[in-house]
């Protein structure tokens, strides 16, 4: 657990993530076509290293949806400032304070069209939506929010990266149960410690938010701080 964290810390110290986050680039990363030029329904989940030193350990995730024929995308983030659920506070595929996002979920067309109402329903009824509900660790945070959507919409058939600290926070109150994909089981001690085994999720040991494990379906090591080493999430 400690070695990959140390590697991530060195990458942070040698990189440019220590620059002023207030002036960091938040422009489009070019991952989405213009909504007006893409008539199909769209679902995307993006992940990017979070701000400053916290990026050693964690990513921030968000979801973007667009109904068929819509002229704009809708982006949903869960943040620590103001009302936690932030709607269109940033560009749909914008850099997260300088960090280029990674695509976690990519669904277009009729399947996306069928799933978007379920996604919007989860967002509208998410219980941790009041000021002060956000908690960076162990949750609920931005990754807990996106995990709740993925729990309720298993058809997404995806899993957040191991650096999505907070994804294992038991926001639903269940410490034992089936995995979001319904292909395995999990046990969690309040988000601090846990074990997940499933076909979609792979094998994950959660140790105080850091995840160590192996992706069976798309072979890759899951390491705290470093993330995935192997086939990418979108493969």
TrEMBL record:
It comes from the Bacteria. This is DUF3750 domain-containing protein.
């Amino acid at each position: 657990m400690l070695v990959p964290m140390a590697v991530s810390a060195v990458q942070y110290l040698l990189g440019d993530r220590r620059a002023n986050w207030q002036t960091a680039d938040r422009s489009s990363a070019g991952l989405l076509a213009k909504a007006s030029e893409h008539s199909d329904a769209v679902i995307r989940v993006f992940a990017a290293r979070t701000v400053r030193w916290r990026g050693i350990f964690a990513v921030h995730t968000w979801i973007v949806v667009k109904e068929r024929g819509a002229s704009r995308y809708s982006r949903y983030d869960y943040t620590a400032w103001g009302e936690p659920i932030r709607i269109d506070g940033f560009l749909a595929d914008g850099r997260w304070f300088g960090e280029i996002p990674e695509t976690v979920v990519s669904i277009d067309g009729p399947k996306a069209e069928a799933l978007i109402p379920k996604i919007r329903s989860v967002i509208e009824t998410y219980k941790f939506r009041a000021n002060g509900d956000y908690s960076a660790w162990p949750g609920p945070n931005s990754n807990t929010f996106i995990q709740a959507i993925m729990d309720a919409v298993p058809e997404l058939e995806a899993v957040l990266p191991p650096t999505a600290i907070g994804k294992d926070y038991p926001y639903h109150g269940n410490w034992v149960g089936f995995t979001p994909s319904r292909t395995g089981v999990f046990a969690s001690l309040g988000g601090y410690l846990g074990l997940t085994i499933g076909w979609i999720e792979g094998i994950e040991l959660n140790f105080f938010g850091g995840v160590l494990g192996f992706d069976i379906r798309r072979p890759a090591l899951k390491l705290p701080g470093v993330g995935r080493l192997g086939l990418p999430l979108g493969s």
